[in-house]
Predict the structure.
Amino acid sequence: MVVGILAVLKAGAAYVPQDVRITPPRVLRQIVGTAGIRVVLTTTAHELPGGLGTVVPIDSIPDNAAPRKARSGGETAMVIFTSGTTGQPNGVQVTHANRCNVLLTEPGSLGIRPGDRVGQLLNIAFDMAAWEILGTLSHGGTLVIRGEEITRIGEITAINGAELLESAGVSGPVIMLGILVVVTLVNLIVTSGSAQWALIGPVFVPMLMLLDIPPETTQPLYRIADSCTNAITPMSPYFVMALGFLQRYRRSAGIGTLFSMTVPLSFALLVVWTLLFFVFWVFGIPLGPGAPVRWKGPPCHPPNGPVRLCPRCSTTSGRSSNWRRTATTNRCSTKDSTHSARGSSSGSAHPASKPGTPARSAVTSSN
């Protein structure tokens, strides 16, 4: 999709990056309508839902296709949408001037020089991916595109982690407490909620699903830990803002003063939210409409869950080891045959600064 991004910019349009593997069809349609998207670029490896307008698989365009003359575009270079985990996804328009100001001046240039090799690892829907791609190419560096092995690292880690925890006999509540601790510590370093979820979600969601903990339960676990340590990490820009306000009333206050005042509050929030969550867990209280805190019945039969149910394996009392290994793919392997699985999978607009302002093209795919 790097070629698609460069083509959109050269054509004078703006691109709206999305990953069809994790963005629900409803959200994709909403983004297309909000941003006024006319063309959706993808690859033949991805199947897109209907209702998105004109779809162009860029890897099916003939090499001898006649080029068209580029035209001058508008001010908008890209529109980045949030994931929408806290409500309606919001999009922010980024202009060419803003993007150039970040990429071409210190320290935003990151010291990239001709001959430097930079790995392209981030999901294209993440705003920092533009830094990776456009920043490297703008300074004459070499962009090293990630391969299939890296794109599946989350899946591999999830499966191996689930098998390790299962073999160790770790119970569900202990696993969930471990998730809270890990996310709390990561949040001290990565303070962006969307960036942290992009790192943790592809691992924790399928891993806990394999351990029969639904995604509806994983999300509040993440939110509890993510919300409690934002106030105490100097890595957060809001920490500096809070320190500035504190010094207006106590001029001698420093980082240690603010830290000592916020740590008790942060710890209290973590304890209270955790206890409240386990009240829901122990009594089986739904987290919302159609959002059970735990799956009922045999492990291989989660109600309406995103785990794909195999026509053959679903008749057993539990998942076989072969099915557990392939639960995050669309294939199910048994000792006597390999057959397709069936089921569904679950799966980012302040609306674009000027609602209805057309972002003429979109890149809707994964890398």
